[in-house]
Write a structure and sequence with these properties.
HIT family, subunit A, alpha+beta, about 140 residues, 5-stranded antiparallel sheet
Length: about 140
């Protein structure tokens, strides 16, 4: 996609601070730096989100995650954890529609990042959970 900002970064038409690059992916510092070391990993081929991946692309992109995460963590002894996020669709907070993975190093509970996971345990019986699982299983394409 010609106007995609991440495609332009991959083609070096827009400057970025690259931390890793190979034939399939490019990892670079996010300009917003939610926390120091905040890095994005993007496939070099344009895909909008996870729903456009095939198995080969997924293997190439997601196999790089431990490599990048370990390098970020090793780069600063103050990093005590890391959020690794892949948002898909506007409702899921995706703002650039070229698939990407965020690596957000965590330094303390008081840094400028948080996530909320609602607990709805009391709303789901084992039967309701099984019905949901069966519906998902029926749509697996393996």
């Amino acid at each position: 996609m010609e106007d995609c900002i991440f495609c332009k970064i991959v083609r070096n038409e827009i400057p970025s601070t690259t931390v890793y690059e190979d034939d399939y992916v490019k990892a670079f510092l996010d300009i917003s730096q939610v926390t120091p070391g905040h890095t994005l990993l993007v496939p070099k081929v344009h895909v909008a989100d996870i729903f456009e991946y095939d198995e080969e692309l997924a293997a190439q992109v997601f196999s790089r995650i431990p490599l990048i995460a370990k390098a970020i963590k090793a780069s600063d002894p103050k990093i005590i954890g890391m959020n690794i996020c892949n948002n898909n669709g506007e409702i899921a907070y995706q703002s650039v529609f070229h698939s990407h993975v965020h690596f957000v190093p965590r330094y303390s509970k008081k840094d400028d990042f948080w996530m909320h996971w609602g607990d709805h345990t009391d709303q789901y019986t084992p039967e309701k959970l099984q019905k949901i699982a069966d519906n998902i299983k029926a749509h697996l394409e393996v």
